[in-house]
Amino acid sequence: MNRYTWRTFLLEIVMVLVTAAFAFPLWMLISVGFRTAPEVAQNPMGVPTSFNLDNFTGAWTEGQLGSAFIVSIAITVTSVALLVICGAAGSYYFARSRGAAGMRWYAIIAAGMMVPFQIGLLPLYRIMSSIGLTGNPLAIILISAGVHLPLTIILYTGFIRQIPAEYEEAARVDGASSFQIFWRVLIPLLLPVTGTVVILDGIGVWNEFFTPLLYLGGTDLVTIPVRIYGFVGEYGADWGKVFAGLVMASLPVLLLFFVFQRYMIKSFGSGLKG
User: Fold this and answer.
1) How far lies 27's CA from each of 19, 171, 257, in Å?
2) Which of 17, 89, 176, 250 could form a disulfide with 171 if both were Cys (CB 3.0 to 4.6 A apart)?
3) First to last CA, the chain
4) pTM of the model
5) What pLDDT is recorded for position 99?
6) How far, in Å, CA of 45 to CA of 28, rounded?
7) pLDDT tens digits, one per residue of 84-107
8) Selecting from 3.30.1490.100, 1.10.10.10, 1.10.3720.10, 3.40.190.10, what CATH number does the domain 63-269 have?
9) Average per-residue pLDDT in the chain?
10) Could you count the other beta carbons within 10 Å of the beta carbon of residue 253?
11) Tens-place pLDDT, residues 100-131
12) What is the DSSP letter of 164?
């Protein structure tokens, strides 16, 4: 057995400090969200003496978070579904392509991760405005799918390359078409990496603030982050409602992680072994 040394003790201290650093924002959400404004002003990091739900009810009714939840869920689910379908289909081609054209297009798409989205902000807004998509959630869906597609392609392509091609060759010998091979053979094998894609892309789309503010601001179809931002005024902010809204907005993200975490762990841990 390994002896308990000063290095072990130092590692434990570092891990405790790292855990405290990650837990502190969560503590602030709960502490401020469940306390009244005078209590927060007196001691911002104090312990809640009671679970006061006034901030939650006020954020839900005044901020109209119910409709914002529906819009955010619709945008996130549609964007992630589009990313999974397009990402898996495109990655199948890139992973099995042996020509220079496939590698060239894969490099171009992967390079999209290095290009800041803000560079094309003005031309993209002009295009969306010219086709009448400003104020329409479809604009957010298309933009979110385009922004997150490079990472999705990279994840899927790396995973598909680990899958032995013998599975597809056997299905082709049995008379399966390319679409049948992709749908019936490959898709079931992609569940681990699909869980990773759903979590990473889902969180990214759900937490997006600037794009919905730009395209949906001033309409009734704004998302959760934009609604919560409404509690921040020019001369002050209702931090109780802000933090309460953040707590409620984080619940779908936690649910998403708990549902797909086993696929994500499997994808990062071992992938597929032939």
Assistant:
1) 12, 53, 20
2) 176
3) 35
4) 0.85
5) 79
6) 7
7) 999 999 999 898 888 788 888 888
8) 1.10.3720.10
9) 86
10) 15
11) 888 888 888 888 888 887 788 888 899 999 99
12) -
Phi-psi map region of 64: left, alpha, beta (phi>0 left; psi -120 to 50 alpha): left
Rounded Cα gap, residues 251 and 227, in angstroms:
16
For 215, the token pair is 């395209």
For residues 184 and 176, the answer to whether their CB atoms sit within 8 Å is yes
State CA 183 to chain mean position distance. 25
Q: 91 is written with which tokens? A: 């990655």
Q: Are 33 and 247 in contact (CB under 8 A)?
A: yes
DSSP state of 120: G
Chain mean position to CA 189: 22
Going from N- to C-terminal start, the domains of the chain cover 1-52, 63-269
CA distances from 22 to 19, 25, 26, 27, 179 (A): 5, 7, 8, 9, 45
pLDDT in tens, 63-87: 889 999 999 999 999 999 999 999 9
In the block, which residue shows the tokens 């680990």?
162
- pLDDT at position 172 is 87
